[in-house]
Amino acid sequence: MKLPSSHIKAISIDAISLDKNALSLSISADIDFDRFADFAEPLVAALDCTVRERQWGADRHQWLLEFEGTQLCLNYEFYGNICWLSAEREADFDVLEYLATLLKSHL
C-alpha cells in the first residue's frame, strides 16, 4: 500500500553513488538495522516503488521492489553498514539513474 504524499516521512540521505558495472545505486545514510523499515518504507515511497517481498537475516535486509515493471532489490548489510539498490539486467540501469535523480532532493 502506498501512502499519500502528505503522509510520507522525510528521508535523510548523506550520499548516493551509481555503479554501472555492479548495476547498483549505493545509498549512504544513518540506518538502524533493527529499525530498517523506518528508513526503507519512506525511501520506497519517495521512489514510487512497490514492495513485493521482504527478507531479512542475522545481518542483512533484502527487499524485492518494483518500479514501473522493473524489479529491483533494496539491500542493507549491517556489518558493512551499506545500503544499495540493484538491478538484475543491464538494460534496467537507466531506471537506477532515474531513481538517483529522485534521491538528489533528499541529500
Task: Walk me through what this model shows.
This is DUF3630 domain-containing protein. It comes from Shewanella putrefaciens (strain 200). InterPro entries: DUF3630. The chain has 107 residues and is an alpha+beta fold. The protein has a single domain, classed as Double Stranded RNA Binding Domain (2-Layer Sandwich), CATH 3.30.160. Helices cover 21% and strands 36% of the residues. It has 2 helices and 6 strands; from the N terminus they run ββαββββα. It has helices at residues 36-46, 93-103, and strands at 15-19, 24-28, 50-56, 60-67, 70-77, 82-87. The chain has a 6-stranded antiparallel β-sheet with strand order 1-2-6-5-4-3, with helices on one face. A hairpin with a 3-residue loop joins strand 3 and strand 4. The radius of gyration is 13 Å and the shape is globular. It starts with 14 loop residues before the first strand and ends with a helix. Residues 1-8 have low confidence and may be disordered.
Give short descriptive properties of this protein.
alpha+beta, Double Stranded RNA Binding Domain, 36% strand, 6-stranded antiparallel beta sheet, DUF3630 domain-containing protein, 2 helices, DUF3630
State the share of residues found in helices, binned by percent.
10-25%
Total count of strands: 6
Strand order of the largest sheet: 1-2-6-5-4-3
Output the radius of gyration: 13 Å
**Low-pLDDT runs:** 1-8
Please tally the helical runs, counting DSSP H or I stretches of 4 or more residues: 2
Helix and strand content put the structural class at alpha+beta
Shape: globular
Average per-residue pLDDT, rounded, comes to 91
Q: List the secondary-structure elements in sequence, H or E.
A: EEHEEEEH
At the fold tier of CATH, the topology name is Double Stranded RNA Binding Domain
Q: Into which percentage range does the β-strand content fall? A: 35-45%
Instruction: Give the biggest beta sheet.
Output: 6 strands, antiparallel
**Separation of the first and last Cα atoms:** 26 Å
User: Can you tell me the number of structural domains?
Assistant: 1
What is the CATH architecture descriptor? Answer: 2-Layer Sandwich
InterPro entries: DUF3630
Protein name: DUF3630 domain-containing protein
